What we know:
Blueprint: H1 22-29, H2 40-47, H3 59-73, E1 76-81, H4 91-98, H5 100-114, E2 116-122, H6 130-142, E3 150-154, H7 165-172, E4 194-198, H8 199-211, H9 213-216, E5 227-234, E6 240-245, H10 250-256, E7 264-270, E8 275-278, H11 288-291, E9 302-307, H12 312-324, H13 332-351, H14 354-367, H15 375-389, H16 391-398
Parallel strand pairs: 1-2, 1-4, 2-3, 5-9
Antiparallel strand pairs: 5-6, 7-8, 7-9
Helix pairs in contact: 2-3, 5-8, 12-13, 12-15, 13-14, 13-15, 14-15
The structure holds iron/sulfur cluster.
Amino acid sequence: MSAPLITRFDGPRLLAGSTAGLAEHARRRGPFPAQAVPHLIDMVGAAGLRGRGGAWFPTGRKLAAVAENGRAAGGAHVIVNGAESEPAAGKDKLLLRTVPHLVLDGAELAALAVGAKEITVCVHRGAGLADGLRRLVAERAAAAWGSRLIVTVVEPPRWYVSSESTALAQFVEGGPGKPRSVSTYKSGVRGKPTLVSNVETLAHLATIARNGPEWFRRTGTGDAPGTALHTVSGAVRAPGVYELPTGATGWDILNAAGGQTAPLQAILVGGYGGNWVPADALALPFTPEALRQVDASPGAGVVFALPRGACGLAETARVASWLAAQNARQCGPCFNGLPAIADDLARLTWGRDQTAFDRLRFRLGVVDKRGACAHPDGVVKLVATALRVFAADVRAHLGGPGCPGLRHPGALPLPTPPDPSEGWR
Ligand code: SF4
């Protein structure tokens, strides 16, 4: 692992002021950088941009793979993934509200670079974003701004797994918003190799096309250059979305949110398919490489601070139950296993049930990596890290004096799930 190094931070790059209108966007960011297109894949690779949707995969390699597969298949497609289904995340929605033209520039540049003729922007139904985005797409067409490719805005259902890349591809081509097992790089929308890219990643890409890879690398770490957005909540003074250089420590991120409001016992990192880590992990840079030391990843940029006195098991049990109800009902280990895991965790948490605890540990091993998508793996990770980080609480729940934290109201947000009658279309 190379040492994380923040070389310089000149301030936010994406959240440097709202530019929702095209005229303001053009004034602040400059013209659409069409001249970068022939070199864009190399530029993004040289910049070291990594996807900010959760996986932190090198974006240049993703672009190159879709471009190559698209050439062989006679065309490609681009999906802008703005369907931010992590309940504790808000960065992509914020970007789509404050710098939507930067995101659309990134999508159009990426589409030109991979040889796609069509772009589909996906935002969750009910997020209140689709109509505004359609107006912006029309504004760009009227002003002859950008690529003049076909850009469509669609609203997949609000299910947690409907924002998964293969689920988006299936929804865009007219099917249900459910994951499937073929990689979108190879076969996405109507069989075309499809670039599915997160909103924040595309916004960074648009800045690289304008300013070059050297500029992008001026801040952040060597392994993951640039800045990254974090949605910070829990026991902090000013919950919200903050942009910091990659390599910022957990403490830097909490301090950007006004600092802690109480002594902390643990941090949820990445999202609901992420990891609990002990509070002393806040000293680490929140990069994929550094967080690997504590078996975690920055994921989708969620940072939730759990105060001492709250019950981490109860928080996890509520989230696990919510996630279990969000499965796409396609794979047995996920469909049957996740509710059973959530039930065992609830029995451990509220029922002092040793048998449920033993069964839970067995089930975590059985369900992991047994689905068509990573949804069950995320739930297993969340619960397994809770059992590890809150081991003292497990003992207190099973045989000790009981857990005073159970009196705390739940802190992690759990949106009302879609009504099953809404279906998956
Ligand atoms: S693993 Fe679960 S969420 Fe993923 S496709 Fe299978 S049933 Fe659906």
